[in-house]
Amino acid sequence: MKNSSLQLERLLADQWEAWMRWDPLFAMQCGDHHYDDRLPEAGDDHYASWREQSAAFRQRLRHIDQATLPPSDRLNCEIFARMLDFEIAALDYHGYRLPISKAGGFHIFFPDLYLLTPFGTIRDYENFLARLEALRRYFDESIGLMRLGLRTGFVPPRVTLEGVDKSLQAHIVDNPACSVFFKPFEQFPATISGAERERLAASARGAIEGSVVPAYRSLLEFLEEEYRPAAREGIAASELPDGRLFYENRIRYFTTLDLSPEAVHETGQGEVRRIRGEMEAVIDKTGFDGSFRAFIEFLRSDPRFYVTTPEALLEKTALVLKRVDGELPRLFKTLPRLPYGIREIPVFSAPGSTAAYYQPGSGDGIRAGVYYVNTYDLKSRPLYEIEALSLHEAVPGHHLQIALQMELGGLPNFRRFSGFTAFVEGWALYSERLGLEVGFYQDPYSDFGRLSYEMWRACRLVVDTGMHALGWTRSQAIDFMAENTSSTLLNINNEIDRYIAWPGQALAYKIGELKIRELRAMAEREHGAKFNLREFHDVVLLSGAVPLNVLEARVREWISLHSD
């Protein structure tokens, strides 16, 4: 047993160190600052190398006698094997050859890099400068990767590139001091002298002029002269090389389950019908006299549901979150120590971005988590969605789950700092519903917003599979979302384009939430009056973000141990 455990410990340590070297940006987010002066490589060889390394680690795992391991190590082996298998299979389909869209990509990530970077010492600033100097190389390699994608059939849908040019133009500046990349050099810690400040600021201006601006200019030229003209009118993942198999792989990768597009589509249709009935009941409570479609139009157009300033939207969001903070002990035995904050989505990416998203804090506890709120086009940010959206993105959703996972000292690093999308997003969607149990959604319009958000995730099962495997058009998907949710048309258009650019990811939310709710219902039936919600949440959360079959096994074991 001891020898096998040592083999596993060594394997996990070797894989983790290789991962940190392969992706220095992820390393920094995990709290490993050994590579803070580096950017990853971005060429096809870089991904091929990681595929080879992952396969070698998988082979080493096969040579460990797992029968001699203690249960905790056997569980580590099971989750580690699933992670490697998913990674290897994903790399085999080369989806990384489509690295940018209006919904995301390195061109949007890098302007936020300073927000993720520590700036306490001269070395920290010099590390950041080294990354700025390397940015042009990274962009050039990424352009080469996209050219390879075009040659090998990985051609982006044209609609996913709309607006990318504007997000690039924002960083092509004449004055380096006006660049977002210069922001860290506007203020310095008191421990850095005036002469050093001047030197570092001058170096930043040089790096922005010599690397950052040329990088964005080259990418813009490539976008306008080669990439967008070559883009396809079609939207389906099935149009890509090995398209059906690629999309089935995306389903497996994001849900951790072996599901066909047709089965997911049917599950979604069933959920849409169920939630629609609940939405109709809430409309009756409001006293609204009209059809479902008329009620949706009323919500989208009545000024009472909207604010006129970004500050007002942020204030209302902050109030909801502060109320949630006070209710968390009623729902949870174990809470994270790391706090979170609220921040506006940057103006250069806001038009094509979602309503909100969460950025995890750092693994070393130095940087808090951040809940990003979209304040662009305020008439598309209804107040009746704030409660559900905030519970999802911050607490008890993403921040609570991810921050708590990072603080689980008994887990190996790969389980503390990574996870499976179906668990992460399934938990966040499940968290929206928890608000019902602690006094939220008292206003029927807010409750309708909650149901609309749940409907939104159910619709994803329908439209994602519809567009990528079953022949649906973009317009058909937009119409389906517009008919069944109260989301504004800007949000619907951006979301549909996100699903086009990111096949399968949108399925994780509802599939994961359905599993968690199924397991909770099972525990409530078996335990009856003895059911303890806070203990159930510990069982779900304290192993980290695991595959859904692992979660089910863990919950079933807990039910058995605590049943009469």
Helical stretch count?
23
Q: What about the largest sheet?
A: 3 strands, mixed
Distance between the termini: 34 Å
Radius of gyration, CA atoms, in whole angstroms: 24 Å
Tell me the fraction of residues in β-strands, as a range: under 5%
Description:
It is a single chain. With 564 residues, the protein is mainly alpha-helical. The protein folds into two domains: 2-235, no CATH class; 247-513, no CATH class. Helices cover 62% and strands 3% of the residues. The protein is built from 23 helices and five strands. The strands form two sheets. A three-stranded mixed β-sheet has the order 3-5-4. Helix 1 runs antiparallel to helix 3 (44-62) and helix 7 runs parallel beside helix 9. The radius of gyration is 24 Å and the shape is globular. The mean pLDDT is 96.
Q: What's the short story on this structure?
A:
This protein has 564 residues and is mainly alpha-helical.
Helix and strand topology:
Blueprint: H1 2-22, H2 24-29, H3 44-62, H4 71-92, E1 100-101, E2 104-105, H5 106-109, H6 113-116, H7 122-151, H8 164-169, H9 194-230, H10 243-255, H11 261-286, H12 292-301, H13 310-331, E3 340-344, E4 356-359, E5 369-373, H14 386-393, H15 398-406, H16 413-417, H17 421-434, H18 444-469, H19 474-484, H20 489-501, H21 508-527, H22 533-541, H23 548-561
Parallel strand pairs: 3-5
Antiparallel strand pairs: 1-2, 4-5
Helix pairs in contact: 1-3, 3-4, 4-10, 7-9, 11-18, 13-14, 14-17, 14-18, 17-21, 18-19, 19-20, 21-23
